[in-house]
Specification:
heterodimer, A: 111 residues, mainly beta, Immunoglobulin-like, 6-stranded mixed beta sheet, 5-stranded antiparallel beta sheet, 11 strands, 59% strand, globular, B: 115 residues, 7-stranded mixed beta sheet, 4-stranded antiparallel beta sheet, 0% helix
């Protein structure tokens, strides 16, 4: 099945710093989503981005489907950005929408 | 509008007990998914419903796990004869489309602890 790898596994930032999180996937995809899992465990949708570039405030994401990777950019980080960021993909040949998650990047933003 | 809700939020079971976990998807969403998240891991797919039809149950770890969505709305995940390895957070997600390639919205999860 499709493999999803995220890097780095852990990241510590000072408040105000910028960061880039990466997601590599091993096959063509129908769907790619970025999530933020907050300390209470809630998975919050950040982007639905199987291809192209999107921006939402301090966050932006780019997926280059032909090269099988996606990047999540966080600018001017805040302590509330702390948590685990997951990339999840739906394989192109899957008909049901099942998402395969990466292992996540755990981000800690220090004041 | 209301998001995906799950109940209970926390469940403690003694080994061997049966448990039932409930998911209320977003109104009008056709697709419903269950995922299992072990501590420190990403969620893993369990099963998928399109309306009331269970189209994919390839992720259910054993025949002790059973899911249903009889009227195409609320879903229940049942675990029989719980084991310690069943301890995890169980997440439910729903999406509007019936063929994937759509945003999935997740509920807050049910944290199951089996003693």
């Amino acid at each position: 099945g499709i493999q999803v790898e995220q890097s780095p596994p852990d990241l510590i930032l000072q408040e105000g710093a910028n960061s880039t999180l990466r997601c590599n996937f091993s096959d063509s995809v129908n769907n790619l989503q970025w999530f933020h899992q907050n300390p209470w465990g809630q998975l919050i949708n950040l982007f639905y981005i199987p291809s192209g570039t999107k921006q939402n405030g301090r966050l932006s994401a780019t997926t280059v489907a032909t090269e099988r990777y996606s990047l999540l950019y966080i600018s001017s980080s805040q302590t509330t950005d702390s948590g685990v960021y997951f990339c999840a993909v739906e394989g192109f040949y899957n008909q049901g929408g099942k998402l395969i998650f990466g292992q996540g990047t755990e981000l800690s933003v220090k004041p | 509008g209301a998001g995906v809700s799950q109940s209970p939020r926390y469940k403690v079971a003694k080994r061997g007990q049966d448990v039932a976990l409930r998911c209320d998807p977003i109104s009008g969403h056709v697709s419903l998914f269950w995922y299992q998240q072990a501590l420190g891991q990403g969620p893993e797919f369990l099963t998928y419903f399109q309306n009331e039809a269970q189209l994919d149950k390839s992720g259910l770890p054993s025949d002790r796990f059973f899911a249903e969505r009889p009227e195409g709305s609320v879903s229940t995940l049942k675990i029989q004869r719980t084991q310690q390895e069943d301890s995890a957070v169980y997440l439910c997600a729903s999406s509007f489309m019936d063929r994937g390639a759509d945003t999935q919205y997740f509920g807050p999860g049910t944290r199951l602890t089996v003693l």
